[in-house]
Amino acid sequence: MSAARLDAFAERYVERTGLPGATVAVTEGRETVLTAGYGRTSDGAPLTADSPMRIASLSKSFTALAVMQLVEAGRVELDRPVQRYLPEFRVADPRGGRITVRHLLDQSSGMSDRTFPDASRPDQPQSLKEAVAQLRTAGLSADPGSEWNYHNPNYHVAARLVEKVGGLPFGSYMRREVFAPAGMDDTVALESSGAPSPGLANGFVRAYGADIALPEPDHFSAGSGGMVSTAEDMARWLVLQQSGGRSATGERVVSAASVAEMHAPSSHDGRSALGWMRREPEEGDHARLPQTWHGGALSTYSSYQFLVPETGYGVAVLLNTGIALTEEDSARLVDGLLALTEGRTPPEGGSSLWKVDAVFGVLTAATVALGVCGVLRSGDWARRRRGRPLWRTAGRLLAYLVPPGLLAVFQPAVDILLGGRDGTWLQRFYAIPAELSFLVLASFVCLGVVAVRVTALAREKRR
């Protein structure tokens, strides 16, 4: 596949969907086919292949590789309990002693957001040592090794293991033992999702057809989602994965056996690996090939990396917009690049976000107008109900409690829809600003109408 065709597709796609910016890396075996940037940063600068971008949960693949280096050195065994190497690791469940290093890396430790909601905790840790100490209050939702639960603290523990066994702070270990030998000089490991980094601009939230530059909500993510990289460095990373652990210059970073181990599906579910995920074509889908991949999602940045063993291609896409529940533009950009490398027709692209936001914008404006009207006419409303049974009047008012009721159950309902994943109100708002703005405003408007009408009814009763 020619670089020119990939480049033309990505440029046209970003333009047509209105994505503010994306950087792309495409490799084939040991060769870099394309690295490029499209769009702009929130500072107005054009995005290039050297622009730093938050890579979110792609960080987990790097942490897993660091652990595998220690495995190769004979200092760690994947199937030994974590407590053998990290005695400070304890959870509030006796089964915690059976959690192995492998369980951390393939997300089958039994820890989950349901039993330890780390993202919404007000007491965010300030170090990996503190992050591991906080897990003493964590329960387990399943026996270790029996169930897959995506849980960022698995990788906080893995990163703490790296710095404890490796003898260096996690960021220093990654820089010296992983990034430098891989030739990734512009990649850094930060401790939190919103930590500043040289040259890194704020990302965007997309709402009502506009791209709004906002700072990333800060939460602890060392080892799980705090890394910053570039398209150029991600190309070097993909080459390392496809070259048996050797860098583009031939330097050995990790063994071929370790790379194969990281990419191999785990026995407990077959869809996860060590710092990676596995995706098999659905039955009857002959268009796709088996993929080794991982995605990353923050509130203002998102990312994807894919390896396709049958073709030898690798694709990484870094975006300066967060993942919205109503938007698939970012995922379809990756799908299009993969389709081109496999000889398939890529999607044309064309955002549907503005349509959804337009609907909610109209609903929000209509709600405000009806609410103002309901308040102004509350006196007439109360007079018309003078002498009517109280239960009938109360029944008419109950309908106004639907939006506040939906708002009250919003967080737990979203947690369930996302498979139990934890998140803060701010993170939810960044993901669906138009929808949540409508629900919040509708709730306040309805409560205001109810309050004014109840007051008017009481006044009529006194008369």
Automatic annotation (TrEMBL):
Annotated transmembrane regions: 358-376, 397-418, 438-458
Documented EC number(s): 3.1.1.103
GO molecular function: hydrolase activity
UniProt keyword Hydrolase present: yes
Keyword set, alphabetical order: Hydrolase, Membrane, Transmembrane, Transmembrane helix
Membrane recorded as keyword: yes
Superkingdom field: Bacteria
Signal sequence interval, chain numbering: none
Domain annotation Beta-lactamase-related: ranges: 6-324
Cited Pfam families: Beta-lactamase
Coiled coil: none
Protein name as it appears in the record: Serine hydrolase domain-containing protein
Species name: Streptomonospora wellingtoniae
